[in-house]
Structures
1.
Amino acid sequence: MENKQEKILEFVERIDNNDFGFYFFTLDTKGNPLAGIANIYEHVKVLNELGYKAYILHDKDDYHGVGEWLGESYAKLPHVSIEKKELNLSPIDYLIIPEIFANVMESVKDFPCKKIVLSQSYNAILELLRIGERWDFTYGFRDIITTSQKQGDYIKRLFPSVINHIIPPSIPDYFKPSNKLKKPIISILTRDQKSALRIIKSFYLQYPMYKWLSFRELRGLPRKTFAEQLGQSCLAVWVDDISSFGTFPLECIQSDTPVVGKIPDMVPDWMEDEGSTTSNIKLKNNGIWTNDILAVPTLIADYMRAWLEDSIPQEFIDGINASKDQFTEEIVNEKIKNVYGNFVQKRKEEFETLLKIEEKTK
Amino acid sequence: MKEENQISIIIPVFNADETFLKRAILSVSKQIVTPDALILVVKKDSDDVKLVEKLTKEIKVLNYQIVINEGNTNFQAQLNLGVKECKTDWFIFLEQDDELARIWVNNVIDYRLDQPNVNIFLPMVLDVTPADQFLNFTNEAVWASQFSDELGILDNASLLRYQNFNIDGMAVLKEAYEEYGGLKESMKLSFIYEFLLRMTHNPCRVMVIPKLAYKHVNEREGSLWSTYKKELSLDESRWWLSLAKKECYHLDDRNILYKKKD
C-alpha cells in the first residue's frame, strides 16, 4: 500500500515537473507532403516549445522524416521508434493516435497511459474500424482532438460518449501575398491528379483564347515552395470532396489568392455563413464556390476576364479579407496550450483523487 | 495623384475621326490616376488642329499640350515628335482611335514600382470585330509557359519566332526610347516589329502587363493597318517584315526603300 501511494505521489510530482511524454503516432509518408502529418508535427513542435516532452512516434527504424518538405526545424523534433523498443509508457504519458489507425488503437487498448485520438479526416475514421468496435468502449479512447466543430459533431454521432476538443490546424505565416504583383498563373490542388488534368484540359478546350494561361499543380511541393507559388498566383482551384477542414482555401485566403472551389461533402465551418442549416447551407462570399465540378472551367474563365479587366467586385475582396487571420499560429498555439494543458491538469486531478482514496483506505 | 506618376500620354493625330478621337481623349481624362500631361501631335494647318482644340476644351482636359508638326507627318514621325516634346520620364502612347481602360495609368505606375528594371511595358489588348465580337487577345503570348526565357518578359529570341505584338498603349521610359532610336520613320508596316526587335536586342527590358489596356477594333476602315493592307502587295509586306529583322541591329534610320521586283 505504501508503495502504491508513493508511486502516485511520484506521478503527481512528475506531472508538476512536466516529466512525462506526449507520443504522437505518425505515418511514414516516405517524403511525400501531407497536410495531416504537418499538423501533427506542429502539435509536437508547439508542445515542446511550451516545455512539455512531445515525440513523434513511428513504427519502423527507417522512418523517412519530413525534412525535405516541412523543413529541418520539424525534422529535428524528438522522434521515438517502436521497432527500436524506445517506447516505455507510464500512466502519466499520453499516446495520441490518428483516427485511421483503429488497428493500432486495438493493440494499445490495455496500455496504462492516457489515450487520445487525433481525428483530422472524418473520411478515414471507419477505414480500419471493424464492425461493432468503438473508439470509446472497445479501445478506451474517450478524448478526441479534432479540427472543426462539424467533425466533432460527426464523431459524437458515431461515438456518443467521447469528449471532443477542437484544435484547428494553423496557417503558417509564410502563407502571405507575394511582395510582387500577382501573375496570370492558376494554382491548382485536387485530391487526385486526374481531377486536376480533367479541369485543365476542359478549360483549354472550352476557352482556347486563354491557352496562354498557365496552371501550376501544387501537389508534392515542399511547404514553403508551395506557399511561395500560391502567393504569386492570381487564382487557385480546389477540388477535394472529402476534405475535412479545408486548409488549402484558407492558405489561399492568407495569400490574397481567390479560390474557385468545389464545395466538399462536409462543408467547412469557416465557409458557412450565419443562419446556415443542414438543409439550407448558406456560404460566405470568401471564395467562388460551386457544387458542379463541370462549372469550374467557366468560373475560372469568368474570374480571369474580370482580373484582366481589373473588375473584381469589391464585396468579393472584402469577403476574402473578412475570412483572414482566423487560424494564425498565435491563435492555434493558444488552443494547443489550453487543450493539452487541460489534459495534464485533469490527469493530475485524477491521481490526486486516487491518492485521497488510498489515504482514506489506509 | 501618386507622387511617382511622371507620366504623359501621347496621341499622334492624323486625319482624325471626331467620334473616335473624342473617345480616346475622354478615356485619358477619365483615368483614375491622372497623367501629368496629354500631348496631342497634329499636322500644321490641318483640320486636326481645330478638332483637337475643340475637343480639349469640350472635354476640359487638364495639362494638355498641342504639338504642331511641320515636318514628316507619318505615324512614326508624329510619335517621335511627341516624345521629343514630352517632359516626363515616362510616356504612354495611344492611337487616336483607341480608348484606354480607366485603370491603365494606375496599372503602369504599379508595375513600374513592381518591376523597376523594365523600360517598356506593353499592354494586353482585347481584339474585337467592328461588330464588337471577341476575336483574340494580343501581347498575351509572353505569359504562356516557355514562350520566352522569363514569364511575362518579351525577349529578342521569342520575337524572332513570333512577331504579332502591338505597341498601342505601351508605356516607355523616354530615356530608353531616345537612346535606342525610337520608331523609324522610313519603315512601313513592320516599324513596330523592328522597334521591338531593336529594343530587345539592346539592353532594354520589355514586359507585358497582364491587364487589358483597351479594346481594339480590328481592321477598322481608315486605320493605318487597313491602309497598309490595301496599299501593300504581299511581296512588299514580306519584304518589310524581313527588313525589320535586319534593320533592328542599326540604331539609325537608314532610309531603305522598297524596290518593286521587275
2.
Amino acid sequence: MAIKYNEKVVDHFLHPRNLGRIENPDAEAVVGSPACGDQVAIYLKIDPETEKIEDIKFESFGCASNIATASIITELAKGKTIDEAMDITWKKAVDELGGLPPIKYHCSVLAVDGLRSAIRHYLMKEGRIKPEDLNNDLVRGELYHVIYPPLGIDIVSAKRVKYIGVDDGVVTIDIAFDDEDPYLDEIIHEIEEKVSVLPGVKEIKVNNVGLYE
Amino acid sequence: MERVYFDHCRSTFVDKRVIEEMNIWMTEKYWAPAPFTSTGTEIQEAIEEAQAVWASFFGGKPDEVQFAPSEVVASNITIRGVVESYWKKHDTMPHIITTEIEAGSTVLSVLRKLEKGKLAEVTYLKVDENGLVSPDDVKNAIKDNTAMVVMADVNFMVGTVQDVTAIGKAIKEKKEDVMFVIDATRSLGRTPRWKYADFADVVYTDAHRIHGPKGSSVLWIKGGASISPIIWGSVTYFKITQEKPNVPVIRGGMKALQILLEDYEGKYEKMKNLQKMLFDGMLERIPEVQINGPWPKYRSPSNVCVTFKYIEGEAVQMYFDMNGITVDTGSACANPFLQANHVILALYNDYARAHGSIRLILSWYNTEEDVNRFLDVAPEVVKTLRRISPVAPEIYKK
C-alpha cells in the first residue's frame, strides 16, 4: 500500500505550532543528532507552584513525521502538569495526528523523548531524581520507545527484549533479532541513544542473542 | 500547476515515438519469432535489427547483444554468470573487484550474497573525494584468482564519471583474462560518447532511463567471454539470458536508443547547461550549499546532488513535492532500511551531509523553466527548514 502522510500531519509539518526557543527556560533537552538523521530540541517554562507547563517550544532537524509529531506534542503538553506530560506516549501523539505510516513511527518517538528528557532534567535539577534511582523499570520504560520499523511496534511489546540488568550504572540489555536483520544496527543505536539519557547510566551493553535462541 | 520532474534516475516518461513503435509489435505484428514463415521471420528480423542498433552503440557484434527483463536480472545474470563460469573452469573461489560506491539494489546486493554464500571473495575499492577510482588501485587489487572488475561508469548518486578507458587498460595490462564488467544501467546518454568495446568485456544497461519502456534491459557480452547462464530457459535466441524475446519492449528500447543517438551531443550539452544553471543558481541564492561529488570536472551532465546544511533531506524533498517538484534524497528517513546514502558517506564520512542530501537527475526534456521553478522555490524551502532547525546558526533564525 502506498505510504502517505494525512492532511493533519502535512498541516503540522508546514505550519508547526510552538516553534522556536525560550530564553532562560526552566528545562530543556536536545535528543538525537543530525548524524543520526534527526534531532529535536524542547524548551519548557514550568510554574513551580502548580508544576504546570506554562510554555513549550521546539526545534527540529528531521523529516516531516518528526516535525509534525514535535508540533503536536507541544500542543498536547501545554497547560498540563509535568506528571501528566510524562504520560504522553508516542502512540498518543501519533493518534492525535490521525495516524502515521508504521515505518515512520520511530521518527515520531524522538519528540516524545525530548519532552520526557526535558522534564527529567527539571526533576534532577530539583533533586527529585537521583542517579542511584536507576533500575530495570526505568530502562524498560525507555525501551518502550524503541520501535522495530517493519512491525511498527516497540521492541518490548514485540517481545524482542530478553534481559535487562542494571549493576552500578552498567546497563546490560539482551535483544533477539536475526543477525542479518537490516534494522539491527539502527535498533542497537536507538537503544543506546534512549537509555543513555537516564540518570546514573555509565555504560550500556547491548547483546543480540539471535532470533532462534 | 505542471509537475517538474527531476528524478530521471528512477523513471522517465516513455517517448511518444517509442509508444508508436511498440504499438506496431503489440497490435499489428504481434507474432512470435520463428524460421521460414513470413510472420516468424519478420519478427526474427525485427529482433536482429534491434541487436544491430545496440551493437553499433556498444561497438560489438549484433549476435553479442542479448535482452533481459530488468536491471536486477541483468546484473545477476552477468555477475553470477562470471562466478559460475570461473568455478566450473578452476574449481576454486573467484575474486571480484568493485568499488564501495556501487548501487545497492544491483551490484552490491549481488556481491554481498555471493560473499555470504562463500561463492566469491570481494574487494571494495575506496574512492577519492571526487568519487573516482584510481586505475592503479584496480591494477594493484588484481590477484591470481581475480575473475572480474565490476563497476558503474557513472555513479548513480553523485554523478562521477570514471576513467573507464584507463581502468580497462590497467586491467588488461596486469592480467588479460580478468573481465571488465560495466554496470551502465544509470548512465545511458549521460556519458561522453564512447565505445564500450574499446575497454569493456560486458556491459548491461536499460533504456527506461532514456524514455524507453520499463524492463528494456540490454546486455552486450563480448564473444568468448567466460560467462555461464544462471537462468535456464530457451537457448533459441539468447544463450546467456535465455529469455524468450519480448518483442514490443525490445523494439521500444531500440527506438529510444535511436532517438537518443539522433543528437547525442545536443542532448548532452543541453543537460550540461541546465546543470550549470542549477549549481550556479543554488550557490548564488542559498548560503552554505554543499555540492556532493565532483564539480565541474568528472561529473555526468545529468547529475545534481547537494546538501543544504543544517536541514534534513526528506523534509526538503516533501517541501519540493508540495511545490510540484519531484527530487530524490539520500536521507535515511526516506530509505526503507533507514540507512543514510553509502556514496555520500564514502566520499565525506559525514552522516549529516548524507541525511541532508538532495539529488536531481536531469533528462534532455527538462527545460530552463523547470530549472527556474526549482531555483525560485529552493531558497524559501531552505530558509523555512533552517528556521526550524536546532543546529542552524542564529543568522538563519530571523
3.
Amino acid sequence: MPLKAPLPAGPAAARAYAAAPAAGRDPALLRRWTLLLGLAVLLWPLLVLTEFKPWQLLDERSLRSTGRFLAQFVPPRADAEFLGLLARETWRTVAIATAGLALAWVIAVPLAIGASARLSVSAIASRMGAPQAALRQLLRWTAVLLRSVPELVWALLFVRVVGLGPTAGVLAIGIAYGGMLGKVYSEILESADELLSYTVYRWECAIRSSVVLGFVGAGGLGQQLDNAAKMFAGAEVSSILLVFIALVALSDRLSAALRRGLD
Amino acid sequence: MNQEAQAGPAPVAGAAPAAVAAAAAAVHLRGLHAAAAPNARQVVLHGIDLELAPGEQVAVIGASGSGKTTLLQALGCAIAPRQGELRLFGVDPWTLSSAARQRLRGRLCLVPQVPPLPPRQRVVTAVLAGRLPSQTLWQSLRTLWHPREADVAHRALAALDLADALWLRVDRLSGGERQRVGLARALVSEAALWLIDEPLSALDPVRSEMAVATLTEAARAAGRTLVCSLHQVDVARRRFARIVGLRAGRVVYDGPSAGLDDARVRELYGADDPALPAAEALRAAAAALEQAPEVLCR
Amino acid sequence: MAATLPAAPAPRWKARALVLAVGALVVASFVSLDLRWSDFLSRDALARMAAFAASFFPPQASPAFLRSTFGAALETLAMSLLGSLLAAVGGLVLALPASLQEAGAGLPRRAARGVLNVLRAVPELVWASLLLIAAGLGPFPGTLALALHTTGVLGRLFAETIENAPPGPAFALRLRGIGRVRVFLYATLPQIAPQLVSYTLYRWENNVRAAAVLGVVGAGGLGQQLSYHLGLFHTRESCTVLLAMIVVVCVVDALSYFVRSRAQA
C-alpha cells in the first residue's frame, strides 16, 4: 500500500496549485532571527554582571564545605533546649507578623478612605475641590511609596532608630503592608468579604516577611537561621528550615480555612 | 440489513474483488458495541458489522444521534468498544501495548467536525502538525522554528481554495476556512485510514463540492481508505461509491450509492420530508460546536 | 457579588468565634513582644528620629559615588532578570509533569508538585543565605536564590495554566499517537504562551524588589551597598542607594508593562 505522494494529485487540484501564488518565504523568519539575536546580545552582559559561573559550585573546596554542611542536615538538631528555643522564636515570628499586620491595618484604613474618591465628602456634595483632589493624590503616592520600599529596607532603617529587636520588625511590616493594604482596600472598599479575605492572605505573607526580617535583627526564626548559617551549623539550619516549612504550610491551611469560614 | 461489502469501482488498481478478503481488510468490525465516552452508561452503537478494503471510500449517513461520530471515534481508537470485534489493518488495537497502539494511531487520521486548532497558531504549523507521527523529534522542533515543508502544506491548502491563508493565524479565519484547514491536515498526513467527521457543516454548497472532490481524489491517488460521515446525502450519492446508513446505532444500509433511493433515505432520517437531512445537518453542526472532547485515551 | 441575605444564626456564632480568636491573637502578639512603645514614642525618641531622617538629605551625588551606585543598580537589575528567565525555564520543565492528569501519572505529578512546593515555601533570602555557603559572596548566589524560589512560584502557576487550557487540540494530536512533549509544543503551548509570558513578567517586577534586598546578606547589588552604608551610618549615601532602588523598581515595572502590552497584541 503506497504511503508516499500524500498530496491531492488530480487534474483539478493540480490546476488549483498552479493558479495559486507560490508559498514564498516565511514572513515570520526574519522577525524570529532578530529576536533571537537580540536575546543573545542581552544574555551575555547578564551573565557577566551576575558573575554567573555555575562551575564554581562544583569546585573542590566549595563541594567539600557544601557536602559537610549538608551532611549535618540529617539528623536535624532536636534536643529539648533547642526545640524550646525554636518554639519561642516561632511564636515570636507569628507575633511580629500579627502585630505588624494590625499596625498596617490601622495605617491602611484611613489611607484608603482618604485616597478613595467614592467616600469623600466633596464627592457627596458633588463637587471635588482642587485641594481635596491634591490631598487624595498625595495619599495615593504615600501608599505607593510605602509599598515600593521593600520591608527589609524599612527594617534596616528602623533598627538604626529603635535598635535591634521586634519593634523594628513590627514597624517595618506595619508600614510596608500598610501601603499594600491601603492600595487594595481603596479598590475594594465596597465588598467587606473581599477586604477580610485579602487581609487574611496578607497575614500569611506577613509571616513569611517576618522570617525574612529576622535577618536584620528583628528576632524570630529568621534571626536564628541567620546565626546558624553563619556558624555553619547544619543540624540547626535543617531543624529551623523544617519548622519554617511547617509554619508556612500551617498558616497556608489556616488562611484558606479562615477565608472559607468568612464566605 | 447487511450486505457483504462489495466495492463499486475497484479503488485499488489491479486488485480483483476476490482478493479483498477479510485478512487484508483495512477495517473489520463485527458485532461492535460502543458508547460515546469511556464511562458513559448509554451504548450508542449496537452490533455494527463493517468491512472495508484498503483504499475503499465510504460515506456514512444517518440522523443526529445515530452514532456516526461514535463509529468514527471507535475506528480512530479514541474509544474502546464495549463488545465485539474491531480490527484495523488486521490488528486489534486494544490488545496491543500502549506504545504499539500509539504507533498504530499514527496510521489513522481522525478529523473531528470542530477543527481542533490552537487559535494563535499559524495555518502552516497547524496543517503540518498532521505530519508529526512520521517525523523525528528534531524535525518537529525545526518545523516550529521554520517550516521546511511549507510547500506541502501550501499545495494541500491550494486544493481547498485556501492558498492565501498559509501564513495567517488560525483565529483570523472564518469557521468554514478553519474546517478546511482541518481537512488539509488530513491531506498532508501520511495516514492510511482517513476518518472525517462532517467536513462540510460550515461550508457553502460550492465549497462543499470542491472539498469532497479534493478529499476523494487525494485518497484515491494515494490509496488511502476513507470513511466520511455526511449529512448532505446528495453529495454522498454523487461522490462515494459505497454508502453506509446508520439508524439508532445500527447499520440499516450498506451498499452501492446507486441503490440508495429516497424511500431508504426517509427511513434513515425517520420522517416523510426528504429535505429533513439538511435541517438535520444544521442542527448537528450547532450541537457539535458545543461539544468538548470528553474522551481521554491512553 | 457578596450575598445580600443576613447570615443565619448558626454561622453567626462561627463568625463571632473567629473574630474573637483573631482578636485574641492580636492582643497576645502585642503583649508578648517586648515592644517598648515608650522608647519609640517619647519626645526624645521622636526628636532623634527626625534628626535621623533629616540626615538623609541631601543625597550623596558625587560622580564617583553615582557611578558605583549605577554599577550596583545594573547588578541588581541583571540578577532579577536572569533569575526570572532561569525560573521560567525551570518552572516550565517542572510544570509538565506537575500538570499530568492521566490515571497512571500519580508519582511524577506528586513528585514535581512536591519539589515546586518546597521551592516556593522557602523565601529568596533564606535560599540566598544557604547558597552563600556553596557559592561565596556576590551576585551569583543571589541570582540562584531568586531562580530557585521563582521556579517554585512560576512552576505552580504554569501547571495550573496548562491544566486549564482547552483540551481539544492536544487531544486531537494525542489521538494520532504523538508523544506528550510534541503534543505540548504543537497544541498546548501556542494557547498558553501569552499567559506564561505575563506571569514571568509579573514575577520579574517582584524579583527586582527581592534582588535589591538580597544584597543585605551579601548577594551583591544595591542591597549590599545599603547594608554597608547604613552600618556605618553613612545616611546620605544610603539615601542615594534607596533612591536608586526606587528608580530600578520603576524602570522594571514600566518595561514589564510595555512588553506585556506588546505580547497581548
4.
Amino acid sequence: MRDPRASREAGAHETGATVSELFDAHYGRLAGWTARLVGDTELGHDFATEAFARLVREGGTVHEPRAWLYTVTANLVRDHWRKRSREGAAYGRLGTPSGSVDRDSATVLTVREVVLALPDALRLPVILHYYADLPVAAVAERLGKSEGAIKRDLFDARRRMAAQLEDVR
Amino acid sequence: MSDDPRGGAPRDPAATPADPDAALVRDFFARERTAAPTLDADPARWREIVETSARSRRPWLRYAAGAAAAAVVLGAVGVATFGRGSTAPPAPAGPVLSSSDVGSSPPSRRPTSSSVPTPTLSTSRPMSPSVPPSLPPSGAPVPASFAVRSLTTGAPGHLFALGTVACPGGQCPALAGSSDNGASWSLRHTFPASTAAPGSIPGRLGGAGTLTQVRFASASVGWAFGGAAMRTTDGGATWQDYPHPGGEVIGLETDGTDVVLTAAPGCTGGTCHGAISVVRAPVTAASATDVAGTIDGGSGVQDAPISWQGGQAFVSPVVVPAAGRPAPTPVVVATDGLHRAAPTSCGTGQAVRLVTAAAGTTLFTVCPSGGAAGQIGYAVQSSGDGGTTWRPIPGQPLLLVNAGTTSFAAADARTLLAVSGGSPDVHGSMSLSRDGGATWRQPRSAPPLPDHGWAWVGAPGGATFYALSGDGSGAYWKSIDRGETWSQVVVAGH
C-alpha cells in the first residue's frame, strides 16, 4: 500500500501525471531494469530513486517523463561504470585482482556484459534504444544528437554486439 | 515505443530490413527486458525519493532536522505534473502538510517555566577560557597528537572535532574546526588540562568538570560538555561557562533552534547517582533554565542521549533500575513535561534506545534481546507517527559483538547503522541495514576494525554517516553512500 500522504496529494491532473503516479507506473520496472544492468539490486534502487528525486526537482517541466527517467538513470549507470573502471585500473596497477567471474560467460551473456564490451560512446544509445526500447528520435533528443548520428552509433554497436552474441549461440 | 520496457520490440527502425544483425540484437535485448525483475515500489521508497529531493534543495540537513523540508517537498510533489508534450512551467510548491498529515499531533515544543518546577540554578565548575601558555594558538595547524573524541556539524561545510592534545599539564581538550567539509582543519581552542577526562574513551561519560563532547548549532554557536558545560558564540575561539540546573551534563543536542541537555548529579566512574534533569533552551540563550521534567535515575545513570526530529527532542535514559522497578523508557520533551515515546520495556529490563532518522519522520527503537557467543542481539521496532504506535521489524535480528559500547544512527527510513566497541580483547563490530532493520550485514566496504572497536556513529543528513573509533585516533571515518563504503578523514597534523 502506498504512503497515504502521497496518495492524497497525488490526485490525477487533467493534462498529465503527478510524480506519485509516475512512481506507481514506472519505479518498479525502472529499478529492476537498472538492477539487471548493474548486477546489483540495491544499486538499482539507488539509481532509480535518484532519477525520481531529480524528476521531483524538475517541478513539472519534463517532456516525456518515462524517456527522461530512463535517460537520467542510464547516465547514472554510465558514470558508475566509469568510476568502477578507474578503480579497477588503480587496483590493477597495485596488482590487486579486480574481481572474479561468477559464472560461465561463454554460454550466457547478460545485458551488462554486452554493453560493457562496447566503447563508452556507444553505450548510452544502445541502452536507451535497445534495452529501454526508446525510439531513435527520443534517444537523439535526449542525447542531443541528430537521428542520423544515433543510427550510425547503433549500426556500429550492432556489428560489435552481433559478433559477441554469435560467439555464444 | 512500447510503454512497457519489459515487452518485446517487434521492429527496429534503426536497422535496414536487410540488416542480418538486427534480429539477433533485437531478440537479445527483448529477452533481457523480460528477464529484468520488477522491484518493490513500496512507500518507503517513495519517502526516500521525497527526502532525497529535499536534501538536494537543502544540501545540508542538521542532525535529525529533515522532516520539515520533506513535508514541504511532499506538497510540491502533489502539484507537479508531467505529460506528453506538456509545457507547463514549474509548479509552485503546495501547502506545507499540517501536523495531522504527518502523523499524530505532536506535543507542543517548548516547555515553559510555569509547567515545571523551577530548580535552583547551578553552574559548572568555573573555568578560564584562556589558552594555557606554550600551547598552539587558535588558527594554528592541528597538533599531530590530536585524538578525536567527538564530531559535530554546525552549518553547511562546517565541522568541529573535540579531541585531546598533549599539553604541559598532560592532556588538554582541544577543538579543531573545518570550514570546507573536512578537507582542511585548524585548531580553534585549547581547554585547560583540568577539563580533560583521564582514561575515558569517545562516547563515554567524562566525569565531573570534564569536556569530552561538542555540538554546534551554527558556524558560530556551540557547546562543549561532558560533566562541565561551556558555550561559544564565535566559532570556538572563546568559551564561557554555560549555567544549567541538574548537576553534570551527560547529554546535549541541538536542532539549530533549541538545545536540550540532560544532567544528573554525583557522577563518578561513568555512573551518575540521582534524577536526570531534562533542560531545554533557545540556542541564543547564555544559560539553560527551563527544566522540562526529570527521569528517575534508579540505582545509577549511565547515559541519557538526546536526538532530534522535526523540532522534537527525544531522550533515551540508560539507567540501572532500582530493585523491582522497570527501566525508564525514552521520552519526548513537550510543553507540559516529558511523555513516553517508546515501548514500555525491552522485555529484558534493559534500556530502550530511541534512534531518529536524519531524514523523514521514522523513529526506531533498539532493544537488547539476548545473544550468545560473545554477541548481543537487538530487536528493532519502528514508528511513523512520532512514537504513538510501534511496529516490530520482523526478520534477522541485529547482532553486535558484545564489546561494551554501542551506538546507532539512521539516515532515513530504510538505512540504519549500528556499531559496538570499547574492548581491546573483542574489538567490536559494524552492521548496516538497508531495509529498515529487517536484515543486517557488514557494509560492502567496511573500514578496518579498530583495536577498541567503534565508539560512535552519526547521521548528519543525506547519505552521509560518520564513525569514530574507540582508539582515540587523529582521524574519523566517513561514508557518503549510506554506509556502504568508507574513507578516513585525518584531522591531526593538518
